Predict the structure.
Amino acid sequence: MKLYLLGLSAMALAGSMTSAFSADVTMPDPNYATATAVMNVIKAAAEQELGLQISTVTTTAVPVIWEAMDRNKGEVDIWPDTWLPNQQGLVDKYVKDKKSVKLAENSYEAQQGYCVTEVTYDKFGIKNVSDLANPDNAKIFDRDGDGKGNIWIGAPGWQSTNIEKVRARDYGFADFFNLEATDEAISNATLDSAAKQDKPWVGYCYGPHQNFARYKLKFLAEPAYDPAKFVVVQANEDPQWFEKSKISSAYAKTTVHIAYASSLADRQPDLVAALERMQFNPDDVSKWAYSIIVDKKPADEVAKDWIKANPEAVSKWFGH
């Protein structure tokens, strides 16, 4: 969710976009299943209903995606995975201040926090985030024998990963755990192994996500969201972001939005009108991701099958 990633440099992304300029619209594929699924649904629906040619560029560099939308040159036109509050800093900069990017009115609800497997919750009694701030409890999650637990906090460069580094410190468990910032596929493999062997596992979770359809996961209880205890300083704006951030509560209500370059309203007004009407169901998004990851079904096929099965929804998006 949610997210900002640093997988490609601006130069590398710019190079990958060269062939996309001939298309009517360009969208990024961030290479994680939920966002890939939504992107493909938007792409297939727009191509079917409006006859557009939509190109995609593969990148996990969300700040670069926003910078490309900000330039309004067709490098990136639509970013369908704007998680709030995670990407609030980017929204403030480009939507509120510069007004170079717009945020579609509709959104769908998401959830994020720490998850454990059912056996971790029921057998080992890890039910609250405060349970992690105990060295004996932390050892339950020790996979490499170094005396510390292992907890996944997100992929490298995700905005939420920076937040989780601060939360681990301020919740008091950072010293007892190895904070793992690895590719999500690695985390999913570790979770899969733990679930199959009834072993403890803990990590950052967000939903919609295929793992909620695949495993019995439970969110750990946390103190309710408190804006005074959820102070995030953006890493791209202050080198002392970690020291200045203070986070010791749950996330605020999380929503996922479509963002698009402001110039798209002039270039593709019918598409923008559809983007403003689009509404996604979190359960559908989890199922799409499950089909992509577990069933190994190509994302474009998942999208086209859903569109074929839901003509009324698509028709409403495009004002038919």
